[in-house]
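Supplementary Methods S3. Input chains for the assembly prediction are listed below.
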Amino acid sequence: MSFISYLINGISLGSVYAIIALGYTMVYGIAKMLNFAHGDVIMVGAFAVFTIVSTLGMPIRLGIIVSILICTVLGVVIERVAYKPLRNAASPLAVLITAIGVSYLLQNVALLIFGANAKSFTSVVSWSGIKLADGQLNISGVTIVTILACIVIMIALTLFINKTKAGQAMLAVSEDKGAAQLMGINVNGTIALTFAIGSALAAIAGVLLCSAYPSLTPYTGSMPGIKAFVAAVLGGIGSIPGAMIGGILLGVIEIFGKAYISSQMADAIVFAVLIVVLLVKPTGILGKNIQEKV
Amino acid sequence: MKKLQKFMSLALACTLTASFITGCGSSESSEGTNNATTENTAETSADSATTGTFKIGGIGPVTGGAAVYGLAVQNGAQIAIDEINAAGGVNGYMLEFKFEDDEHDAEKAINAYNSLKDWDMQILMGTVTSTPCQAVAEKTNQDNLFQLTPSGSAPSCVQYDNAFRICFSDPAQGYASAQYIGENNLATKVAVIYDSSDVYSSGIYENFYAEAQNQGIEIVAAEAFTADSNTDFSVQLQKAKDAGAELVFLPIYYKEVALILTQANDMGYAPMFFGCDGLDGLLAVENFDTSLAEGVILLTPFAADATDDLTVNFVTKYEELYGETPNQFAADAYDAIYAIAAALEQSGATPDMSASEICDLMKTAMTEISVDGLTSSNITWNAAGEPTKEPKAVKIVDGVYTAM
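Predicted structure tokens for the full assembly:
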């Protein structure tokens, strides 16, 4: 029985990683950059909901919608101000370092506004969940909502990219920016749209993360952000189903590592798995092996 | 490349400014309160003002995850300083107090220490938490500056002869917890969830483990977590549940405990929860559902609802000035200032002496005094820096700490 319980917890933790990883992987796939500030956009999303719902006393649904809007705008602004001017810089490191700078900027601004005291986040899911096997097995409402949200988002994203014009434009930009521009695709607009979608996902991830683990500080997003990055690489960065698989695998490995090997070593195990996977399959589980033409 | 440099420097500058503003904001506010109180004391005791003042520095987290402790220490100490100054000071000399923020970070604590040294601090009342305290203890030992920590409980906080403490050490807390559980027959099957990356937590755990054997307590699960994995406790709780633990011992800080209580509630697990002084502050977590903490027991030397004159006086003053009920850390700091005053009086030190001369006198004086404080009556110290006093336990009933 405890095995099933661990498995469910693992999938629940993994679903949160997966939603964050979707944002990472989309931005990487299309703009070919690692947005290290993604984890902190999650934190901003969670604080937005906290402020609207707990401090201002507005309804939860309104809070989530406003939070998604705030994060979307924030994502586009970050891209326009901090990343776009560096897109054609001589070294790809430039934009990476800027992303780290943006990450610290967001953390410190949040520290300034909200202080570093941990705040207890009220779960947005009021449903208490399912009890199975005479109460031995308890699946919380947040867990179920997180897993469902993750599946819905993945399907919606896949459909969006494969079936809509904007999605096709994204695919084109990810393959060849120059050629896409020659075909009349608005490259800047497409990349901005990618950031908008990625950041909107971050807001949802923030709400679900803090509903499952209700402690909110300015540093809330940073560790899950790093783990989600690992998940994206594990699944094959740039691949949307890969992010989902990588996220859930990572969550399950983390929980099983804690449960059956050592609760202290959980993180070491997670990162060891990453190294092994990358040694065997450097592009990640679902990553495509694109040969660079010289 | 020029453009890149411009942007990088802009981004970095923004980050730096942001952190700078945060740092400044807090120290400014503490300075503000200091100035205000010094003016007060100057008015109330202008006639007894003598040639000098003793400069007492304080260090603790006023912002950051452990801010509840730092603020309590700052406020509690300020009350004691004002009382002593209003009553004519120590041997006629006034006390001056300045508090610096360390955000519960060893490196920042050293910076805070250095800036207090620039202010000509003669005695240090700090630091509040164990990890920064160890770092600062190295510095005070090098400088031979007298240090009294209100709440740094790790053994190495007082490993040098210039450092003393008010609170119990981690070994003493682990030992006392096991003894309390055993003697009051609270449980025989106990699970422990501790932070293996934190000296406070693992120190208590080791001694709890050693003493549990003597008390006939069976530790059915001992589960660790680290600073990087301190949000998901489902596995640790599940293991405790499967092992049939009647009591879960939590030698950790309140931030994680708030999460553990929520997650235990979600999975329908309701054992008895027992913790140490790190749980103090649990009820102050913003937006925390305090009904989850109902019945939690913690070992702490101070209960705000005690009815002795000293406690009532302190609690009334604290509530009046800061609008909240003081916790154990405020009481520790209050006692620390009174202990410093008593030792200064005993030693006959004067403000014109250097920090090192005062330190040499204080080392002997501390072992000779006895303080009737908030955290215990008749506290005495041995040369190793450890206090001798009685442990007490409080239980959370209807959202308030209640003496047991």
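The CA atoms of residues 88 and 145 of chain B lie 25 Å apart. Chain B touches chain A through 47 residues (CB under 8 Å).
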